[in-house]
Design goal:
Blueprint (H helix, E strand, L loop, with lengths): L2 H11 L5 E2 L3 E4 L4 E4 L2 E2 L4 H12 L4 E3 H8 L8 H18 L3 E7 L3 E8 L6
Antiparallel strand pairs: 1-2, 2-3, 3-4, 5-7, 6-7
Helix pairs in contact: 2-4
């Protein structure tokens, strides 16, 4: 990711409102996220992905939309790179906030952000 592209992406995520559900806290303006009060060790791309998914709460973002949001417009990135990044972020979130699934897969389309406890998946 080039310096200009990174700066643009960071400026865009800084415009997204904070999120706090009592377990996961995201402060886009400060480029910080916390799980159960502990700072999450996220890469820049993981944070951008988390904020991008959060920005469209409850809606599915296609892999193409996520490539543009995370890597930048016109970047040639495999959809598998998106899947890998989502898997890494999901793993960090599950470790930091056990029992809550934040990122959901809409098979064949993309990913969405909608916190649900493990118990809600049992219904």
């Amino acid at each position: 990711m080039g310096a200009v592209s990174r700066r643009r992406l960071l400026q865009e995520i800084a415009e997204v409102p904070d999120f706090d559900d009592g377990r996961l806290t995201i402060h886009p303006q400060r480029f910080l996220a916390y799980g159960d009060g502990r700072p999450l060790d996220l890469s820049v791309r993981e944070l951008v992905l988390l904020v991008e998914l959060r920005r469209y709460f409850g809606r599915t973002r296609t892999r193409g939309e996520l490539v543009e949001a995370v890597w930048g417009e016109g970047e040639q990135v495999s959809s598998r790179a998106v899947d890998t990044l989502v898997a890494r972020l999901r793993e960090k979130l599950e470790k930091a906030v056990p029992g809550v699934a934040y990122i959901h897969t809409n098979h064949g389309i993309g990913y969405g952000f909608d916190p649900q406890s493990d118990a809600e998946w049992d219904d």
